[in-house]
Amino acid sequence: MKPWFPAIAAVVAATPAAATPRTPASPAPAARSGCDRGCLLDMTNRYLLALEAHDAARLPLAPGAMVYENGRPGRLDDGVWKDATIITGRSTIVDPEAGQAIFFGIVRRKDAGQALYVARLKVADGRITEVEQLTAGKDDLLFNPDGVHFPKPIWSDVLPPEERVPAAELRRIANLYFQSIQEHDPTIVPFHPDCNRTENGTPTTNTNRPDVITSDSCDIGVTKFGWIPVVRERRFPIVDTARGLVIGISHLDVVPGISSNNGPRADAPFTFVIYEIFKIVDGRILDIECFMITPKDRRSIWPVGPFYEKLHPYRRAASPAAK
């Protein structure tokens, strides 16, 4: 069967896999958005109170603010905004220099079901200019809200200066993880020996559960993703150098008929949309927490274009154009 995604383009300028020299992180610069750490935390809390009240009028939305849910343009009076009743778990990561915050939590919906909820906000001049949401439910792979624990202590741990790396290096390391999935090659990414990965609340490394796709170490697990030939539209919008955190967002395309060591053999093409939190200590990935869905269409999760091409000149394969 002919794969549905466009052919991968010729190799483009790639950054060598070797890590750049690390230097102790300097104090965070002033927020370019005019919204510091406390401001972003307060804005996120204001957003969540409005979500629980189903009342977006409470928010300082900028004119023309971009609103997406599960990869589709949306509104703040539909989807999870229409039926969320209470938030039962919370964790927020902020990047004052980028003027962005991302919230991870568990919401209960009117049907009494639980959902994993992610919301990224961008703030400029005291207004929310972007809202990007992901809502994973019982029909999504490995869904296990009981396995998600917020706040996750490892995310809050502040690293000593000698274990920190600059923001650009954090993004580069996170991108190498996406590249290792695409190439099924763990040697190109620096994994910590104690690395763990959790997906939608289900541990998928260092476990003997028979129902998970991979159960080995982080590096061995990468070799079992042969059924994922493309990881596209990679973004790293939020970085916290003091805590060694970087948020990665991407699309993982699955092609039918391609087998792997123990991965699923799909009868039809589909795509994972993933939001991942990487904890990077001393230049190595120590922890990966993934939240993901499989949307019904293949449209871009977020508009991409020349800015994306400029942001990721180091990737080895060009991304298909957004649809």
Structure overview:
With 323 residues, this protein is of the alpha+beta class. It has six helices and twelve strands. The chain has helices spanning 37-53, 80-83, 153-156, 167-183, 218-222, 306-311; strands spanning 61-69, 72-73, 84-95, 100-109, 114-124, 127-136, 191-199, 202-203, 230-240, 245-254, 270-281, 284-293. The chain has a six-stranded mixed beta sheet. The chain has a six-stranded mixed beta sheet with strand order 8-7-12-11-10-9, covered by helices on one side. The longest helix has 17 residues, at 37-53. It is globular and about 50 Å long. Mean pLDDT is 81; it is low at 1-30 and 306-323.
Features:
alpha+beta; 6-stranded mixed sheet; 12 strands; 16% helix; disordered N terminus
Summarize the structure.
The protein has 323 residues and is an alpha+beta fold. The protein is built from six helices and twelve strands.
What is the strand content? 25-35%
Would you tell me the structural class of the helices and strands? alpha+beta
**Mean pLDDT over all positions:** 81
Cα Rg: 19 Å
Q: Please, what is the oligomeric state?
A: single chain
Strand order of the largest sheet: 2-1-6-5-4-3
| Structure summary, number of beta strands | 12
Order of H and E elements: HEEHEEEEHHEEHEEEEH
Helix tally equals 6
Distance between the termini: 22 Å
Structural shape: globular
Main sheet: strands, sense, barrel: 6 strands, mixed
**Unreliable stretches, pLDDT < 50, 5 or more residues?**
1-30, 306-323
Percent in helix: 10-25%
